[in-house]
Amino acid sequence: PGSVSAAFQEYLQHLGLQDFPCGLGSWNKSRLNARRSPRAEPVGLEEAVPPGEETPEALLELLRDQHSPWALPLDCSPQDRLLRELAVLAPELLRGSRVFQVVKSLRILDKGVEEVDEGVLQFQQLEELILSANQISRVPSAHLPRTLKVLELCYNAVGDLQDLCTQPPPKLQHLGLGYNRLCGPSQKKHLTVDCWPNLVSLDLSFNSLSDLPGLVFQLSTLQNLHILLLQGNPLALTPTYRGFLVDSLPKLSILDDIYIWPEERQHFHGLARQPELIRSEARVVVSIGEMKGLPNPEAFQQLEVGSEGPVITYSYCVTYEF
């Protein structure tokens, strides 16, 4: 599927929400018909169920028992279980477009999704959208529900944030952009409080960001930011990288998955006011342990002093590519 909407429809088919023991069929028809009729008595007890039908409890047991052929795998998401059980208890809520009103968390991982399409707006109650390990290069903010609190786009091909930051969801608390293609100073203008007033957690790890002072200047406007991941970027090679961040962002609690203790913050106190320590360079030390296939100089006969014999010289060049 090329879009999120298409991937969601495929996901629904995989869950089989209209098939036994879910959905509406001969196994629960009387119970659901009784629910629609205002004069009918509710059917819920074992003895009140007509022959050939199942109670809600029995149908749920078929979903929950790991030995059942209808059970979901152990590693399935909570959303999978919720939808399957809801399809047993109230299948009418999942018919047609009603299913979009029920989903609050949507996880579509490694499905070849390339487009965050306008159909995502049908999820009017969506709070969590996980689209990791796909092929998404741009995310139009106009296609994101305003109710969104978590947006995870790890392992995609996002190289620019302009579309995402045009009118982003105002309630977003976590933005995950690790392992993408963000680079250059142009991205930092999109990471301010004007775009993300409620952002608590930000993952920018393993991109190509290199301007540490410029990025920190923008991140300092995010008053609610407590968790930040920047490891794997060139800027993380700066000698004073961690200390500069710790002192520049006093409300930060966790940097690169490491908790910031008060002692560490005190140790780096004042470093943010010394920008001259932030140099755009890195030193790499390479040690050669062993070289094979070269002639051994000791194997040559030493020339006598004053000899006019020929002198043989060998030169070698070692090249490193970064």
UniProtKB/TrEMBL annotation:
Lipoprotein as a keyword of this entry, yes or no, is no
Read off the InterPro entries from this record.
Leu-rich_rpt, Leu-rich_rpt_typical-subtyp, LRR_dom_sf
Q: Which SUPFAM superfamilies match?
A: Outer arm dynein light chain 1
Q: Which domain of life is it from?
A: Eukaryota
User: Its GO CC terms?
Assistant: cytoplasm
- Does Transmembrane appear among the keywords? no
Question: Which terms are listed as keywords in the entry?
Answer: Leucine-rich repeat, Repeat
- Classification via PROSITE patterns: LRR (PS51450)
Matching Pfam families, A to Z? LRR_1
Name of the protein this chain belongs to: LRC43 protein
Organism whose genome encodes this protein: Polioptila caerulea
